[in-house]
Design brief:
4 domains, two-stranded antiparallel ribbon, flat, about 250 residues, 8 helices, alpha+beta
Length: about 250
């Protein structure tokens, strides 16, 4: 939940989801005092006392209770290695972590330290594999969008991707970098239907961007010019030229 401020009569209520928001709120109140000349009763706000509250730190011995640590919004919190639930910073106490273990995972309350360390290492490896997979997937997506864009620019048939570009790319990578790199390049899909979909996606995205620029143009003013053209298949195509004022161009 974002930080919310409610004011009524002479009172101000602030709801915070992050401890670090306190500094931002203090700066806002200071600016308000300087601009309005109104003095906020700091004895009731007592930001100095709140900001001086000591935040608890994780200790490696807490793994005995099945907990590692995670940083959320700049705050270190205990996280259970069994259910992956992150507790509040105030729960960074042996008694509360032990209570969580006994109440939520009673079947593991008598396990030793090595058991929880194995769980923690397994969770860590799963996160690393998941991160690597997402990064690799994003790179593959970027690669075939790039190839599809070049095919469209050169006005080549969509089949050129799987019939020429991909076989040549695989052979070059195999010769220069080896079979391991070849497997990664092989994951890039360049079939006729895939290239067609990617080009259609990019065309739709460009159209949406132009329409959005027209809607957000200065004073809401723009002009359009329509014309008709015929493509190589003798099909009529409607061309629309738009002229507008934008913060980036005219």
């Amino acid at each position: 939940m974002p930080t919310r401020v409610f004011a009524f009569a002479d009172n101000i209520i602030v709801f915070m989801s992050c401890f670090q928001d306190i500094e931002m709120i203090a700066e806002v109140f200071t600016c308000y005092e300087m601009m309005t000349g109104v003095k906020i009763n700091s004895s009731m706000l007592n930001l100095e006392r709140i900001m001086s509250i000591k935040k608890r730190k994780y200790d490696h011995s807490y793994i005995e209770y099945g907990f590692t640590s995670i940083v959320i919004n700049g705050e270190e919190r205990p996280r259970c290695v069994i259910c992956n639930k992150a507790l509040t910073n105030d729960s960074m106490k042996p008694a509360k972590m032990k209570q969580h273990l006994q109440n939520v995972h009673p079947q593991h309350k008598d396990k030793n330290k090595n058991f929880f360390e194995c769980h923690a290492n397994a969770v860590k490896k799963m996160r690393l594999v998941s991160t690597d997979f997402k990064e690799n997937k994003n790179k593959v997506t970027e690669a075939f969008y790039f190839v599809a864009l070049e095919i469209a620019k050169q006005k080549k048939p969509h089949t050129i991707g799987e019939n020429l570009i991909k076989p040549c790319s695989l052979k070059m990578v195999e010769i220069v970098l080896g079979d391991e790199m070849k497997k990664k390049i092989a994951a890039v899909p360049l079939s006729n239907s895939t290239v067609q979909r990617r080009i259609s996606d990019m065309a739709t995205d460009i159209k949406d961007q132009v329409v959005q620029e027209m809607k957000s143009s200065a004073f809401g003013l723009f002009s359009i010019q329509l014309d008709e053209s015929t493509d190589v298949a003798s099909c009529s195509q409607l061309m629309v030229f738009a002229r507008l004022c934008s913060c980036r161009f005219i």
